[in-house]
């Protein structure tokens, strides 16, 4: 008789339904790991539509984009049978928990979040929602008692805050939340904007420096061939060569070759060769994704059913957590009135 399998670790991660599609960095830093970890982990993946509201998107576009994002996740290998896929706004418990956590969050602590500082410095309007974003994110994660959270490097500070809040809550009210760890398997790759390799590629920035997963092959090729590179001729990953380093990182993810091996391949060759090869590799990587996406989007009923099923499964866990949280912080349970 084989030994019973230990319970699978719980994994939680989200993505905002912003932009025209997911961008290459979302694939590299997040979604490819999601797809790869579904067998060994009990995965919860959600579309962070409430987080998208910090950009005040056009309402119809947000609705459409949320459904498109489900199709994109499935096309990238997320399997809605093995994983729980849902929309954040379908579970009102997220906002409820975020309020309770916000009462344990220091104002100075929240002010230190560098993503808020970066976004406001780059001209985004600084709403209270944008400031509060990391607290809602902590609620997203803690709600599901996640053991691991696969996220890109840009989200690491938010995860630290999440762990601090979990510890604070547990210390004050008794053991309630699992402490989430960053996903150990991830390499920490951070894809940079092709036109400005000193900043990360982002959906909300877009433009010629962003490769969308759903870009057609010609557009992908054009964007990569126009990438800003660095002075000198040597193809080498180095701090003073952010453009070339970024292209080597992309090549490494798309082909599976290590960066030192790639550097060897390009000895005596120039940036033009590297760009041509990176473009071809990314085109090949995303061509089948686009095909699957088109087929999935043709059946919106199926996408809505995925979200409905996901909300049901996520809701069971969320209600279990919230029943304990409400009781521990001292909220009087509503009396059920007999009809
Ligand atoms: P937005 O500009 O709307 O915030 P975004 O591209 O930053 O979009 P998010 O939805 O905020 O995407 O993040 C989804 C996931 O993708 C997160 O885990 C984030 O860490 C990861 N991610 C985002 N951009 C990059 C990048 N350039 N490189 C690696 N990972 C990234
Ligand atoms: Mg972001």
Description:
The chain has 339 residues and is mostly helical. Helix content is 53%, strand content 6%. It contains 13 helices and five strands. A three-stranded parallel sheet has the order 1-2-3. α1 links the parallel β1 and β2 (42-47). α4 packs across α7 and α9 (217-225) runs antiparallel to α12. It starts with 9 loop residues before the first strand and ends in a 10-residue tail after the last helix. Bound molecules: adenosine-5'-triphosphate and magnesium ion. Residues 15-16, 18-19, 23, 25-26, 28-30, 151-152, 154-155, 190-191, 200-204 line the site of adenosine-5'-triphosphate.
Cofactors, ions, other ligands: adenosine-5'-triphosphate, magnesium ion
Q: Please, what is the average pLDDT?
A: 94
Describe the strand arrangement of the main beta sheet, using strand numbers: 1-2-3
The tally of strands reads 5
SS-based class: mainly alpha
Elements, N to C (H/E): EHEHHEHHHHEHEHHHHH
Any descriptors?
339 residues; mainly alpha; 3-stranded parallel sheet; two-stranded parallel ribbon; 6% strand; binds adenosine-5'-triphosphate; binds magnesium ion
Q: Can you lay out the helices and strands and say which pair or pack?
A:
Blueprint (H helix, E strand, L loop, with lengths): L9 E6 L8 H13 L5 E6 L1 H4 L6 H17 L8 E4 L5 H10 L4 H5 L2 H8 L6 H16 L4 E2 L6 H18 L7 E2 L34 H9 L16 H14 L3 H7 L5 H27 L2 H30 L10
Parallel strand pairs: 1-2, 2-3, 4-5
Helix pairs in contact: 3-12, 4-7, 4-13, 7-8, 9-12, 10-12
The structure holds adenosine-5'-triphosphate (ATP) and magnesium ion.
């Amino acid at each position: 008789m084989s030994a019973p399998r230990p319970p699978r670790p719980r994994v939680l991660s989200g993505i905002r339904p912003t932009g025209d599609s997911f961008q290459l960095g979302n694939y590299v830093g997040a979604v490819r790991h999601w797809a790869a970890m579904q067998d060994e982990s009990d995965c919860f993946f959600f579309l962070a539509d409430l987080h998208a509201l910090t950009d005040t998107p056009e309402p119809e576009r947000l609705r459409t984009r949320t459904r498109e994002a489900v199709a994109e996740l499935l096309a990238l290998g997320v399997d809605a049978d093995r994983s729980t896929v849902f929309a954040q706004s379908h579970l009102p418990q997220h906002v409820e928990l975020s309020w309770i956590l916000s009462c344990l969050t220091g104002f100075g602590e929240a002010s230190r979040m560098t993503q808020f500082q970066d976004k406001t410095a780059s001209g985004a309007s600084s709403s209270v929602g944008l400031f509060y974003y990391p607290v809602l994110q902590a609620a997203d994660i803690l709600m599901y008692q996640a053991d691991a959270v696969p996220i890109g490097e840009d989200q690491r500070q938010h995860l630290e805050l999440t762990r601090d809040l979990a510890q604070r809550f547990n210390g004050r009210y008794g053991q309630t939340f699992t402490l989430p760890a960053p996903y150990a398997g991830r390499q920490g790759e951070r894809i940079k904007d092709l036109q400005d390799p000193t900043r990360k590629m982002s959906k909300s920035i877009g433009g010629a420096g962003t490769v969308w997963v759903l870009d057609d092959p010609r557009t992908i090729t054009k964007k990569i061939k126009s990438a800003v590179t660095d002075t000198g001729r040597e193809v080498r990953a180095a701090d003073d060569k952010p453009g070339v380093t970024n292209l080597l990182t992309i090549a490494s993810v798309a082909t599976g070759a290590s960066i030192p091996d790639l550097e060897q391949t390009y000895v005596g060759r120039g940036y033009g060769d590297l760009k041509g090869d990176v473009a071809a590799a990314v085109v090949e990587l995303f061509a089948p994704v686009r095909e699957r996406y088109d087929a999935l989007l043709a059946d919106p009923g199926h996408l809505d059913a995925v979200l409905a099923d996901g909300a049901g499964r996520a809701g069971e866990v969320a209600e279990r957590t919230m029943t304990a949280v409400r009781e521990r912080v001292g909220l009087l349970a509503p009396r059920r009135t007999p009809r």
